[in-house]
Design a protein that fits this description.
Chain lengths: 288, 350
């Protein structure tokens, strides 16, 4: 019973991390059909921002929840203006250019901070499920993922800005005819996606090693979650994270964490073959 | 372009290749020759990517998967068998079959270009994770330990077929590598000149139209992808031979990106471009590796982004068009919309 509880908790934790990691990518891909291969590096920048702030004496929660997203949002803004906006509508070219950006950011951070693994200490203690000790930070991650999804959903559903965002996504020409400037919306969307990636990086900083190459470990997971989720950003990402997170956690439990990852990626490939439009391309089409 | 000028350019390229094959050992000292040997191995890899991307229109982000698989296959078989001949054949065959399997999955599933990119990328990352975790005695094939992150050192070099006691000297390895490059180039030119190659280019230009004309585009793409996989495997085999060593880094994202950069810099829709791109970029990397100031990833990233933005068609097509502009124009050139050259200009160009 306690083991089941622990396993459930781990599964929820893994789903929550996957949601946080994928949401930024999902926003950018879902809204703009831009596959941002530098997503992992935005996560990395968020983690670095958190670590550097924490080292400078800033409150860790402030660094993680405010500084990291703001910093990455700004970086996203610069990247959109300087690189991505020239390539809208050329999907493969955006992938290549953002891959270049990804390599460049890895190189830049390596030059600045060296190819070493940093970290911050976990701010929360642990608690026990029966005889098992587990981390309270996991609870925070689960709650945060739920809160971010809820806020994003409410924002898209009820705010005027959310309405404009969805309208531009559906039909940019019509939105432009009604007085919206699509380029400005794209800019804001890209920055929002980058900020979400930064938030994920901040949240990851205490639980994973922070190094220039850390993004590569997340990028594949985040991609297939977004592609597997389909066009509805929040519902899709949530459902795909639920499915893949469960599979990877169960496989990790049975074998090793590496094969947990492999199982996740294999499951994703099979699912893309079965549902090429993603989960919400087939089911729940009217969701956000 | 008439066929005769195509044949002429092909023969010229072949002559240059053979001249380099014979001439390089006379010009370079042993150290330089070894360095050029690895450039050539990477050029073979670049040809595989250039073929499937530039001619087949298949956006593979994971050519390094077949490259690494070829390298590992060679290492495992050569360590077990002693003689390297079977190892070489398997190092080409296994990636070909793997590419065919993956291609079946992707092309018969009719998934879009972007998904092909993501799936190939995912497969590469899977292989990286798997090979990274193969440390320890449990992962030994015959008497070849896979070695996890540390890779497999002391891989036996190529030998004269049937004579395991006669391993190739560095100079002979150059002949083998450059010979392989010339052979692959010739093979691809032959394929592109054949009916099969023309259908492949037609599919790249307009897949729906090719389908309506009765071609099974899935099968053609599958075959192109499998051929590309085999060539990448051969390149991996050469690479492993060059260093006598292979590690999971061959599956890393950086390797996959490098291959794309070779092709993008050299020129899409040409065979000469990827070769020159591979040599230029490898040379640049070796220069960057010799100093400690600028990070190689930073430079590669800037090159990749800059070429996508500014020179998306690559260097060789730009030079070719510039040369063509010097001559009096016979007909207005169609401007390619997708970064690929027009079909008419494809088959006769190097």
């Amino acid at each position: 019973m306690a083991l089941t509880g622990l396993l459930t908790f781990n599964i929820l934790n893994s789903i929550a991390l996957l949601v946080l990691l994928s949401l930024g990518l999902g926003v950018i891909y879902g809204m703009m059909k831009v596959i941002n291969l530098a997503h992992g590096e935005f996560v990395m920048l968020g983690a670095y921002a958190t670590v550097l702030c924490a080292d400078a004496g800033v409150n860790l929660w402030l660094a993680m929840l405010v500084v990291a997203p703001l910093f990455c949002g700004l970086v996203g803004l610069v990247v959109e203006r300087g690189l991505i906006r020239f390539l809208y509508g050329r999907m493969i070219d955006t992938m290549l250019a953002s891959w270049g950006l990804s390599l460049g950011l890895i190189g830049l951070v390596t030059t600045l901070f060296g190819n070493t693994v940093r970290g911050v200490s976990n701010p929360l203690g642990g608690f026990t499920i029966g005889p098992y000790q587990t981390s309270l930070y996991g609870v925070f991650v689960i709650l945060l993922a739920m809160a971010v999804c809820g806020l994003l959903w409410a924002g898209l559903r009820y705010l005027r800005f959310g309405l404009i965002l969805r309208a531009t996504m559906q039909n940019p020409d019509m939105a432009a005819a009604l007085g919206v400037a699509p380029p400005r919306i794209y800019m804001a969307t890209f920055a929002l996606g980058a900020a979400l990636a930064g938030l994920a990086g901040g949240v990851l900083a205490p639980v994973s090693g922070v190094s220039p190459g850390m993004g590569a470990a997340f990028i594949a997971k985040a991609f297939i979650t977004v592609l597997g989720g389909g066009p509805a950003i929040i519902t899709g990402t949530g459902l795909a994270s639920g499915l893949f997170g469960t599979i990877s956690e169960l496989a990790s439990f049975q074998t090793t964490p590496v094969f947990g990852q492999v199982a996740l990626l294999l499951a994703a490939i099979i699912m893309i073959r079965l549902l090429p439009q993603g989960i919400t391309g087939r089911f729940l089409r009217r969701s956000v | 372009m008439s066929l005769s000028s195509g044949t002429a350019s092909f023969l010229a390229m072949l002559a240059i290749g053979l001249a380099l094959l014979v001439g390089a050992p006379m010009v370079f000292d042993l150290f330089a020759l070894l360095q050029v040997t690895v450039f050539v191995a990477m050029a073979v890899l670049a040809l595989s990517q250039g073929f499937i991307w530039g001619y087949g229109g298949i956006m593979s982000f994971g050519q390094s998967a077949f490259f690494g698989l070829g390298g590992y296959t060679y290492a495992v078989v050569a360590m077990n068998a002693g003689d390297s001949t079977g190892a070489v054949l398997l190092a080409i065959l296994l990636p070909t079959l793997f590419a065919a399997l993956l291609g079946y999955f992707m092309f018969y599933g009719r998934i879009s270009d972007a998904y092909v990119g993501v799936i190939t990328l995912t497969v590469t990352i899977i292989l990286f994770s798997v090979f990274n975790s193969t440390a320890g005695d449990a992962y030994t094939i015959g008497n070849a330990p896979l070695g996890g992150f540390n890779g497999m050192p002391a891989v036996p070099p190529l030998n004269i077929p049937g004579r395991p006691d006669l391993p190739l000297e560095p100079e002979q390895l150059w002949y083998a590598s450059m010979g392989c490059l010339v052979l692959v180039y010739g093979l691809l030119r032959g394929i592109l000149a054949s009916r099969f190659g023309r259908v492949v280019v037609a599919i790249r230009e307009n897949e729906t139209r090719a389908q309506l004309l009765g071609y099974d585009t899935r099968l053609y793409k599958l075959l192109v992808f499998a051929i590309g996989g085999g060539i990448a495997g051969a390149a991996g085999c050469l690479f492993t031979n060059w260093g006598g060593f292979i590690s999971p880094t061959v599956f890393s994202l950086a390797t996959s990106a490098q291959v794309l950069i070779y092709v993008l810099v050299g020129g899409l829709g040409t065979l000469l471009g990827p070769i020159l791109g591979a040599i230029a970029i490898q040379y640049l990397i070796s220069l960057l590796g010799a100093q400690q100031v600028i990070n190689a990833n930073l430079v590669l990233g800037v090159i990749l982004a800059a070429f996508v933005l500014l020179v998306p068609q690559g260097v060789v097509p730009v030079l070719r068009d510039a040369l063509a502009r010097l001559r009096p124009p016979s007909h207005p050139r169609a401007k390619p919309g997708n970064g690929l050259p027009d079909a008419a200009g494809v088959e006769a160009k190097p």
